[in-house]
Amino acid sequence: MTTTTPGAAGPARPLSDTDGDPTDSPDVTVLTRPAEGAPPIVATPDRLEEAIASLRSGSGPVAVDAERANGFRYSQRAYLIQLRREGSGTWLIDPIPFGDPADLSPVADAITDAEWVIHAASQDLPCLNEVRMLPRQLFDTELAGRLLGYPRVALGTMLEELFSIRLLKEHSAADWSTRPLPADWITYAALDVELLVGLRDRLAEQLDEAGKSEWARQEFDALIAGASVPPEARPDPWRRTSGIHKVRSRRGLAVVRALWQTRDAIAAELDRAPGKVLTDLSIAEAAGDQSLTPRSFRGIGGFRRRLARQYEADWSDAIAAALALPEADLPPMHITSDGPPQARLWASRDPVAAKRLARVREALAKRAAALDLPAENLLTPEYVRRLAWRPPEPVNEEAVDAALAGYGARAWQRELAVPLITPLLTP
């Protein structure tokens, strides 16, 4: 059958024999092109001014998406920004010609009165903030789906379930720093915002019916507020190197640290993903070699890759420096944390806290199921662990509410959780 595209100007293209076996999903329409065709890329000042004027003259919510080059580039910058608004159509803006980073605040100003509709906003807001584009009003279709209890909240999955329309997602992991962008990538990018407003409208109706609209509003506001705050730097980020668990000595950890820091500097300078310069496993393998020397690392496969070979002198210097460190300067095997330990360790370290955690988790899981809501959306698991590990003194609803507010729990979460879990925090 032919299904009308929600929020688009015309019908979606019917499923054809070349798209797949129609007998597998006879009621699904595969959308392969935007209703108005794929627009040209905005990459000049004149075209940008045209886009700004058109978006300003449009009406209603604005569908927004951004494409990055995860796994290819060091930066998390946006390499394409897609916008669609009723009365304006779809605009695909290439931020790269407009600066490093670009200042696209005039685009944001043109739609400042509108609600921005983004799928998985937590992924896109940081790179949009980098080009000075942040919404004042937000609707996150992925988060709305979670609050409504949808088991799968990928954009394509939700469109297929709600509208019997399928998007082809073969370019989701592409290197969007590629220039010029291939024509089929441009079509893919335009389709990502083609149906967002229609999806938003359906989900907003369901949130109203479920009495969850206020929950969603608080969650969306928290996303906007958090997007403008720089993330806290992780202590010792090199400790997250894959395979580091096989390194059994402080000297080996010093090698990991030296190689990781060297690789990070090279990757930043090249704007290449660190794993493209040197893999984590190569670093861990070198660090685990008890007979490692500033020359022997060349026998490890990852160091023989073309790009890694260009920096042999850097790897050699990093290893030599780590091997020459005095014992007092070697990193500790483990670092202490102010937060609770991993939950699997609680039973041996603090059996009382372990029982508290089990009680609280069970109660929250039951309440979340009754609300048709994932437990992690009812209350962030990290907040649960922190509260159960060291409850406030004295344990009462006011103190528990204050603790959760300090962690970042929203008002609706605290209203539901505090009366439920406070009695469970006492021995």
UniProtKB/TrEMBL annotation:
Entry's Gene Ontology molecular function annotations: 3'-5' exonuclease activity; nucleic acid binding; nucleotide binding; ribonuclease D activity
Q: Which organism is it from?
A: Microlunatus parietis
Any single biological process term in GO? nucleobase-containing compound metabolic process
E.C. number: 3.1.13.5
Q: Which SMART domains match?
A: 35EXOc, HRDC
UniProt-annotated stretches for the region Disordered: 1-39
Put simply, this protein is called Ribonuclease D
For this UniProt record, the keywords arranged alphabetically read as follows:
Hydrolase
> SUPFAM superfamilies of this UniProt entry?
HRDC-like, Ribonuclease H-like
Which parts of the sequence belong to the HRDC domain? Answer: 249-329
Give a Pfam family name.
DNA_pol_A_exoN
Q: Where is the composition biased (Low complexity)?
A: 1-12
